[in-house]
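Section 5.1 Outputs to date
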Amino acid sequence: MLFRQLYDQETSTYTYLLADEDSKEAVIIDSVLEQVERDQKLIKELQLNLKYILETHVHADHITGATELKKSFPNAKTIVHSKGGVECADIHSTDGMEIKFGKYYLKVLSTPGHTNGCVSYYTEGMVFTGDALLIRGCGRTDFQQGDPSKLYDSITQKIFTLPDNTLVYPGHDYKGFTCSSVWEEKKYNPRLANKTKDEFILIMNNLNLPYPKKIQESVPANLKCGNIKLSDA
């Protein structure tokens, strides 16, 4: 499998490009509007056929590049979870759904808690966790339908039940890490390792973090698939 991990410095967001090297079918996970030109160029240089534009959830810290990417790749289909509230998505995913590209697939794991529509995407040896599970952290639960009880269940029952050697690729990182593993996070994640659900809820309810800088513009735009003009209407 062809795999690229891409990064947006301003919002510390990871975008992932995966492709079948034989069929050239590709998917992109969590694109960023300001990085669309970079992503378009890479996809064309690698001579890929972008089949799907995937979101792990409705982001509050950046605007998706989905609408702009479709201008260059009009056959690509956008996929957002059915509980994400994104009516303009071409496909609304559900738990257990398989997204196929060439001989590979990503399995949709519904992992709500950061938002109602959060998903992780699993393929053998890799899981893309969005903002549900971060490296030595997790997504916050104090806005956008956040629910620490749901998030605890999502992580412990969906992500932590994957094989220990599964590599964890998060939606963000703020400390210079690029990936982790299920085993590492079960053992060393300070919010989750050896923590009961009640302890986790207490931690999450007392983070007292400022809201993301771009939340007022990002959420409305992402509910419109990143179409800024429609979000301003």
